[in-house]
Amino acid sequence: MANAPVQRMSQLMAKTLRDDPADAEVLSHKLLVRAGYVRRTAAGIWSWLPLGKRVLANVERIVREEMDAIGAQEVLLPALLPREPYDATGRWDEYGQELFRLKDRKGGDYLLGPTHEEIFTLLVKDQASSYKDLPVILYQIQHKYRDEARPRAGILRGREFLMKDSYSFDTEDEGLAQSYALHRAAYQKIFARLGLDYRICAATAGAMGGSKSEEFLAPAGAGEDTFADCPNCDFAANTEAISYELKPVDAAGVPALEEIPTPDTPTIETLAAHLGVQASATLKNLLVKVDGEIVAVGVPGDREVDMDKVEAHFAPAVVEMVTEADFAERPDLVRGYVGPQGLGEKVKYLADPRVAPGTSWITGANKEGMHAKNVVAGRDFEVDQYVDVVVVQEGDPCPNCGTGLKLDRAIEIGHIFQLGRKYADALKLDVLGQNGKPVRVTMGSYGVGVSRAVAALAEQTADDKGLCWPAEVAPADVHVVAAGKALQTELALDVSEKLSAAGLRVLCDDRAGVSPGVKFTDSELIGVPQILVAGRRAAEGVVELKDRKTGEREELTVDEAIARLTA
């Protein structure tokens, strides 16, 4: 393969900026725009400039190499997809407003693919007829589309993004487990090569469906996910996936339910203050509407309800908060004084496992200005279903060992699912088994956020001067800076050509009329791992080599610098 030509900044289609974009909230957004890697086209839609495209291509290359190494075969499927397969699996409706829907000139329904389970299933249905055609792993690196309500954080949460999605097809569950393990190991290699700090966390399957699911999360303050990490054992999980065992208690000694006057106490805070008790002794009952039907959710009064968990539990149903109009239509529901013991069959009651059978509570009496004490779960009211719905807090016990959990923010960079037969059932994907009878195929789905990985790397590796790329994903191996006029520029270009001839990828700042100070600032902002400066000692054939990450500097002859960089 021919060596890449030197990229001269005097010809580069990219301009660095001194100030952060006005709409930038997170570090990667600020720096990728300022350093000339990306530019905003519309809300949640980004253009990749030459430097950014190089980094993106490097991430793609690493992902592709590791997928090929496990025997996966690359294909490319369309992004514009017909409605019918998504109707068959129910996801045309399940995706809700996040799905980009459109019609062609004949009135046919189409969508822009948010993910491709259905289309890969149909591809294998068309191509595989026998167990001899399986197992197989197929993958693509393709743009995905989701109509985010609040696209933000630059390329971290866009409406168009680049993703590697792969799918395994096996005839037996044991084969699915092996395909899953192959992907898990491949992802560990991918993220190690990218230079990302990451955690493998238990996760919920969400709209994807299936049984086992794990996320690969990159800790970062800009992350949209919160994960829990146990400092004592190997437990790690997205907080949405944490569940606790239901532990009933003995309520034999609890007195009978008693109603007590509590005027002007419609909130947990006012109730606890009025009675002189801890909020944890009270039972909070949140009312929501699930596809229009009112449902109550009970949690200890000192905890908050995690609406993401509630919505995930009821998906694809629409979950909304009750309104004043809803209370007006239901006089039996007294706002601020709702208690589970008076709901009966009129309202379905969900509760967090902390509201276990035998636990005793102070809660609403379903009468204005009245509460009830000694209200015992399982004695005075029944829970229709237990679901982990509280917001996980720092210090909550680890489900494995009981040690207090640590919480951190993270960016989701990968997700792997054992889908099972959800999509094969919906689309009737069968092959002939060894006995000549049809066998239903079992599937796995595995994603890597290629463009998100770029943002995650920027978040994790940047410093106060700018970006600081790991060598394997950087847009160049060395950034040569001509810190002066004709003599320095001549030397910089000569060194650049020699480095290029030796196989290195070279970015050379040969811009005329730009001060050395600006060039130095830009070299740190752009973040190439090695910076080579042709400056004050250029006439002597001496250059300065700087390590971008450590800041270490060393003066070398041109030959020494070339030998060092090409070693």
Give a verbal description of the structure.
The protein is an alpha+beta fold and 567 residues long. 26% of the residues lie in helices and 29% in strands.
What attributes does this structure have?
globular, alpha+beta, 9-stranded mixed β-sheet, 567 residues, 14 helices, cytoplasm, ATP-binding, aminoacyl-tRNA deacylase activity, protein biosynthesis, 6-stranded mixed β-sheet
Helix fraction bin:
25-40%
Secondary structure tally: strands:
30
Strand content: 25-35%
How much is the radius of gyration in Å?
A: 29 Å
Query: Structural class given helices, strands, pairing?
Result: alpha+beta
Q: Give the uncertain stretches in residue-range form.
A: none
What is the end-to-end distance?
20 Å
Number of helices: 14
Largest sheet: 9 strands, mixed
> What is the mean predicted local confidence, pLDDT?
94
Q: What best-fitting shape do the alpha-carbon axes yield?
A: globular
Itemize the secondary structure elements and their pairings:
Blueprint: E1 7-8, H1 27-34, E2 38-42, E3 45-48, H2 50-69, E4 73-74, E5 80-82, H3 84-89, H4 91-94, E6 100-103, E7 109-112, H5 117-127, E8 136-145, E9 160-170, H6 173-194, E10 199-202, E11 213-219, E12 225-229, E13 236-238, E14 258-261, H7 268-275, E15 283-290, E16 293-300, H8 307-314, E17 319-321, H9 324-329, E18 348-351, E19 360-367, E20 370-376, E21 385-386, E22 406-420, H10 422-427, E23 430-432, E24 438-440, E25 442-449, H11 450-461, E26 478-482, H12 486-501, E27 506-509, H13 516-526, E28 530-534, E29 542-547, E30 553-557, H14 558-566
Parallel strand pairs: 1-27, 4-8, 16-18, 18-21, 26-27, 26-28
Antiparallel strand pairs: 2-3, 5-7, 6-7, 8-9, 9-25, 10-11, 11-22, 12-13, 12-22, 14-20, 15-16, 15-17, 19-20, 22-25, 23-24, 28-29, 29-30
Helix pairs in contact: 1-11, 2-6, 2-11
Main location: cytoplasm
GO molecular function, one term: aminoacyl-tRNA deacylase activity
Protein name: Proline--tRNA ligase
